[in-house]
Amino acid sequence: MNLSLSDFVLFIVFGSCALVLLFAVVSRTLHARAESRSLANRVICRLCLHVFEDHGHDKIVQCPHCHAANEKGRSRRLG
Ligand SMILES: [Zn+2]
């Protein structure tokens, strides 16, 4: 197979396009993962609605604003 210059240029163009696409997908995935992780650590105070993040493993965290005890995790409780 004889690789001509135009083939080579085409290869470079498609290659860089694929690289850019790959980078976009990877960065988006990493961003989404980081966001969901920070969302999982996000606690909204039930008293003063102060939003803060807690990276500990305790289920009950104290609001830094009003020091009320808040339950961490999905605050959507049915019933
Ligand atoms: Zn509070």
What does this entry look like structurally?
By secondary structure, this protein is α+β, with helices and mostly antiparallel strands. It folds into two domains: 40 residues; 38 residues, no CATH class. The strands form two sheets. It has a two-stranded antiparallel ribbon with strand order 1-2. It has a two-stranded antiparallel ribbon with strand order 3-4. A hairpin with a 6-residue loop joins strand 1 and strand 2. The longest helix has 36 residues. It is rod-shaped and about 75 Å long. The chain starts with a helix and ends in an 8-residue tail after the last strand. The mean pLDDT is 87. The structure holds zinc ion.
What's a quick, concise take on this entry?
The chain is of the alpha+beta class. The chain has one helix spanning 5-40, and strands at 42-44, 51-53, 60-62, 69-71.
Cα-atom Rg, whole angstroms? 24 Å
Indicate the percent of residues in helices. Answer: 40-55%
Beta-strand percentage range: 15-25%
In the predicted model, the low-confidence regions spanning at least 5 consecutive residues are: none
Total number of domains? 2
Q: What is the number of helices?
A: 1
- The end-to-end span amounts to 70 Å
Largest sheet: 2 strands, antiparallel
Bound ligand species:
zinc ion
The coarse overall form would be rod-shaped
Strand order of the largest sheet: 1-2
Number of strands: 4
